Amino acid sequence: MTERQTSSVKPSGPTGRSTRTPAGRSTRTSAGKSAAKSAGGPAGAPADRPLRADARRNRRRVLDAARDVFLEHGTEAQMEDIARRAGVGVGTIYRHFPTKQALVNELTEQWMAEGAVNAADALALPDAWEALTVFVRQSTEIMVRDRGLREVYGDIGKLLDNGAGTEHQQLRANVTKLLDRAHEAGVLRADVGYPQFQALMCGLAMATTRAAPGEHHVYADVVLNGLKT
Amino acid sequence: MTERQTSSVKPSGPTGRSTRTPAGRSTRTSAGKSAAKSAGGPAGAPADRPLRADARRNRRRVLDAARDVFLEHGTEAQMEDIARRAGVGVGTIYRHFPTKQALVNELTEQWMAEGAVNAADALALPDAWEALTVFVRQSTEIMVRDRGLREVYGDIGKLLDNGAGTEHQQLRANVTKLLDRAHEAGVLRADVGYPQFQALMCGLAMATTRAAPGEHHVYADVVLNGLKT
DNA sequence: TCCTAACTGGAAGTCGAATTCCGGTTCCGG
DNA sequence: CCGGAACCGGAATTCGACTTCCAGTTAGGA
């Protein structure tokens, strides 16, 4: 007992059990994104370190493998599958991420960041409605081919809504701007704010889950159409 | 080894594992709904029997408890919780339903049947668009307060789409008629058939999951609006 | 009322998947 | 080129469900 995890994962779940939360002792990594919010280690911890070359390489491999596996099988894919895909042992995954949930969170932030960029790109368009349309269509495209993303999107409410990651803050800010512009132009239903929009995107993700290839635009169109005043 | 289960549950899942499928030896019950599709027991089975009074009572208790628990916690609720709620032991649940999945399936059929009735009611309305509107709104209302239903609805594709229960056949028939009438009246997008509509309802279920109370009508409105030609 | 097949509850058994542990291997400063 | 701190891999452990088992209880016909 030398260090203490500050982030960890909230159990949530129905009766209180279900998803485990096993304390997951830190392995002093996480040097990647998300600036160290160190709570000041009482026992003079060596703070953050550079991370050896091979370790950094493996960390990336794990992240990439996890993205691929989750993309195809969703977050219920197993750690062993990820490890195999990454060409490492499960132990290596755990050296970099204290729990499976931590791994999922890392990827979630990555997804959020990409979404924020897409929203920013859309904001560059002059027409407010076209911007929204482009963003929705693009997001749909992405979700159609990423099962992991769809799942995570369905849980955003529980995991990140209460202002967790910086990436999400950015995404929210950009999308809100997108919506505000559309409101000002008078082309978007007044009763649809960010929360409602997010929920609808969730729904879109769900709907597209079973869409035949090349058919998902129907769902995006229905939602877009329904959003118009 | 005297009897053999015919229904059972397909594993599905990502890598092939996940939801178990442990053979679940039959306990010769299932006297309830769904006419016995007996495959003709090779060893002269006693066929269906009346089911003792207390057994019938407990079966109903279990079903009711399961509905309540799933409604609140979703299908990830535990068998023990259901048993406690029903005031019986888990063994009793298993005498009536070979697996948890079988219990879920039974409730699913129940839900389907209710949905079919609602669709039939809507069909009684003279105006095609109004009928569709009423059905969508009503379905939304129901899903808002039943987490289990939402989850099951999201899995219909895997579990029942390929024509499983009679209840679903009925639901599908009624809804199809609802859609056809709307098409004929020229008020419904031509590219939305039963599969698309079902997917959209799924999405609606997802969206409403996080709706603030009394706000879910927004989502239903958006979808309905989007469905119009 | 009595007998026995059915039914009941819940402790014990299984099982899949996450997480931990540790002997062997690999970077990298001196 | 060497030594040892870091890092690896994957077998072993842990954990939380679901499912099975069986000694005891009960419904309901003779």
Automatic annotation (TrEMBL), chains A, B:
Top-rank lineage group of the source organism: Bacteria
Stretches assigned to the HTH tetR-type domain: 56-115
Keywords for the protein's UniProt record, in alphabetical order: DNA-binding, Transcription, Transcription regulation
DNA-binding annotation, residue ranges on this chain: 78-97
Pfam short name (any one): TetR_N
Ranges of biased composition (kind: Low complexity): 25-48
Record's keyword annotation contains Transcription: yes
InterPro entries recorded: Homeodomain-like_sf, HTH-type_TetR-like_transc_reg, HTH_TetR, Tet_transcr_reg_TetR-rel_C_sf, TetR_SbtR-like_C
Polar residues bias (residue ranges): 1-21
Region (Disordered) residue spans: 1-57
Keyword Lipoprotein: no
PANTHER family in UniProt: HTH-TYPE TRANSCRIPTIONAL REGULATOR BETI, HTH-TYPE TRANSCRIPTIONAL REGULATOR RUTR
Protein name as it appears in the record: HTH tetR-type domain-containing protein
Organism: Actinomadura fulvescens
High-level lineage: Bacteria, Bacillati, Actinomycetota, Actinomycetes, Streptosporangiales
